[in-house]
Design goal:
By secondary structure, the chain is mainly alpha-helical. It is 55% helix and 4% strand. The chain has a two-stranded antiparallel sheet with strand order 1-2. A hairpin with a 5-residue loop joins strand 1 and strand 2. It holds the Pfam family MST. InterPro entries: DinB/YfiT-like (IPR034660), MST-like (IPR007061).
C-alpha cells in the first residue's frame, strides 16, 4: 500500500488517499468465510459484503457515469434505496469482490484520463470537477471503511488500521 505523498501533487495525493481507504476495505474482508461476510451485524442489516458491493456501485457511478464513460449495469433501484447494499443469494463473494476490482479499475482510468479541474455532469445535470468527485469518494470510502471496521470487530474481534505501507 502506498502512503499519501508528503510532497505529491494534488491529484496524486487525492488518489493515494482514496487507495489507502480502498485497501482498508479489502483488508476488512480478508480471512472471513462467506457466511461471516454476509452476516447482518446491525439492525439495518449492514454486512461486509454488502458494503463492498455498495462501494463498487458508487465508484462506477461517481467516476464513470459522471464523466461519460462506459460502465456495467449498476445495482441501483428507484423503488429500493438499499438495493446496492444487498448481496443476493446468487451473487458469490468472488463476484462482489471482482465487481469492486472492476469499479476501481474503471475509476482509475477516469482519474488518469481527466484533469483535476475537468468537469463531469451528474444525473441532475450539475457540473462537478474531478477534484470534487475524488474528495467525495474519499469521504464515502473512508466512512464505509469505518463501518466495516466496526462490523469486522463484531464478527471476530479484529479491529484497527492495516499496516501494509510501502
Amino acid at each position: 500500500m502506498k502512503r499519501v505523498p508528503y510532497t505529491g501533487d494534488e491529484k496524486e495525493s487525492l488518489q493515494a488517499s482514496m487507495d489507502r481507504h480502498r485497501e482498508a476495505v479489502l483488508w476488512k474482508v480478508e480471512g472471513l468465510d462467506d457466511e461471516a461476510l454476509r452476516r447482518p451485524m446491525t439492525p439495518s442489516g449492514t454486512n461486509l459484503l454488502g458494503l463492498v458491493k455498495h462501494l463498487a456501485a458508487v465508484e462506477y457511478w461517481w467516476f464513470a457515469d459522471t464523466f461519460g464513460q462506459e460502465h456495467e449495469e449498476l445495482p441501483f433501484d428507484d423503488d429500493d434505496e438499499d438495493a446496492d447494499l444487498r448481496v443476493d443469494p446468487g451473487e458469490s463473494t468472488a463476484d462482489v469482490l471482482a465487481f469492486y476490482e472492476r469499479a476501481r479499475a474503471s475509476s482509475d482510468r477516469v482519474i488518469e484520463k481527466f484533469g483535476i479541474e475537468d468537469l463531469g455532469t451528474n444525473e441532475r445535470g450539475e457540473s462537478m470537477t474531478l477534484r470534487w468527485v475524488l474528495i467525495h469518494m474519499i469521504e464515502e470510502t473512508a466512512r464505509h471503511a469505518g463501518h466495516m471496521d466496526i462490523v469486522r470487530e463484531l464478527i471476530d474481534g479484529a479491529s484497527g488500521d492495516h499496516d501494509r505501507v510501502d
